[in-house]
Give the backbone structure.
Amino acid sequence: MLKVEDLKKKFVRLNKKKQKEEFYADNGITFNAKDGEIVGILGPNGAGKTTLLRMIAGILEPTDGKISFDDLTYANDEIAIKKNIAYLSGNTKIYQSLSTYELLKMCCEIYEVDNSKQEERIEKIVKTLDMQDFLHNKIEKLSTGQTQRVNIARCLVHDPKYYILDEVTSGLDIISSQIILEFIKNEKKRGKTILYSTHYMEEAENICDNVIMINKGVIIKEGTCEKIKKDTKTTNLRDAFFALIGGIDNEE
């Protein structure tokens, strides 16, 4: 189980008067994600989603709070945790001059996948993400959707337990998006824990077991999609979000 307790991240920015001021991108975020569960992290751009996921992935250090994976913490077990997580954002850059196959082989080495299992692992991932047609093509020649599938594939070679996915279908065509969503659903069936950040509310309703709505660095609502819609007397998560913040004008 992933546990996030009172997580905070403070930054410094310039205000309108060009003076430095402190602000919290995330302020007091607390939630759990169980084994075999997809938890949606929802909110508009600037809500604090990416900062939150980067802290959970060990890329950013929190200002305060605690993160634990099966009771392991970054302070004591950083390597063990990072060997068991996959972090992916929508704008992750990968080596353009390599082929899909070459990149996956390199990632096998990085994650210390047993040599006798590398080819089997790559073959399974390629089939799962439907990458047979461009396995030996250079990444620079791939479409946006194909590149994103390669991006996901490179995170899978070590068969992680935890997936931290940030806007992974943003800008993709409907076929690539569906392949990725079906992959996520299948990984859930395998008992994997998946954090799924998106601003596509309809997408979240399709795959998430529980949803955490974030706005301006704080959780404004959490629960199942049905419970959130019921509590806000709405029929979809988009309307529920605006009901919670008091409409578009209040968001601005």
Observations:
- Residues 44 and 199 are 6 Å apart (CA to CA).
- Residues 174-189 form the longest helix (16 residues).
- The first strand starts at residue 2 and ends at 14.
- The two ends are 36 Å apart (CA to CA).
